[in-house]
Amino acid sequence: MSTYAQHAGQHLAQLLQSRTVPQLEQALQPKPQEPPPQFPGGSRITPAAVDRRWKALGAAENLQAALLDPQTAEQMQAYRNNIENFIGTVKVPVGIAGPLRVNGLFAQGDYYVPLATTEAALVASYSRGAHLLTAAGGCTTLLLNEGLGRAPGFAFANLVDAGKFVMWAIAQQDTFRQVAEATTRHGKLIDLRVTVEGNHVYLDFQFTTGDASGQNMVTIATQAICDYIQQHAPIQPQYAFVEANLSGDKKASAQSFLSVRGKKVTAEATLPADLVAKCLHATPAQMVDYWRMSALAGTLTGTIGVQGHYANGLAALYLACGQDVACVAESAVGVTRFEVTPDGSLYAAVTLPNLVVGTVGGGTGLPSQQACLTLLGLAGSGHARAFAEVCAGLLLAGELSIIGALTSGEFTRAHERRARRKGSGEGERA
Q: Where is the signal peptide (predicted)?
């Protein structure tokens, strides 16, 4: 990671304004003094355990009251499977974007989408895009594929041993399937992708996970396969890891567009020019001009995918609905495309190959998150595919709104108006 010499010199000069070189060196040295007492952590969530943790922190009562309010204290057992060292909850404001009309294979109807965020103007922006899509009859969404991988890695003495192991592993797929599916009621092993790099072998096991997002599910199933390999493989690896960083878990990667991780979904809408002008104060041609320039800029900067701000809507939706928010790193990979149709309308589409979402398990059963999924009408079993299609529709709404704001020159004004109102009550309506 390089830094220009001028910037490095400026940074060093700033540091030396307040401290000498020996003082800077001392600050970076290990400190041998006795550490403070170990924090009374663990997975137990009882009033006594929580009280011990707060006493260990020595925090002021107002801090405890902010995090351990009466409702949280009453509901603390609901969090026992989702957190360690529990001391309370954090409240993030939730707003509704919508109605968003979705015409999908699994999602059908008008959805009021809960978004949890601290960013002013975000909910208003997504809501504006949702209104536009709904006024045009809704967006069409299509679940294209689904699957979640876990990729263990195996190291051998040489390439010959690696090749022999691959030959054996390919012949064991039916057995691997039986071993994996014995660990789960909902997970199914559907495919195996083999990668050889020198004397290293990666086996990328692909699963379907039902209505769960499934990261823990596939980890446990893959560990069972690794245990079977250790017991039965004729060529034993020198060492192995249940995840060797080939699956793309919680990171953007170029392989996103080559297969699927989670659920692959696309959404589209064709918007008449007069409706675009009314809602976004721009023309379809202006929207396409911006999209073209931003797509080229994304290429110049080496971004993976072409899109404006998928992460904004996904993070807010994931937080509200109990998803693994870290999966935004991979879920926010995708492509937005705008075109002017022969009749002058705006064609808009988004494609997302890595939506890691679920409506059961994980954080979906927590009190607030369960309430948000229920408001959305997608709580519990049977709704994960519909939830993925709603995600795509929401992100299409967000792309239309932000590009409309940038095209019309309203982007900065909207943020100034909403982010700087300082509780004055202005900006109640867009």
A: none
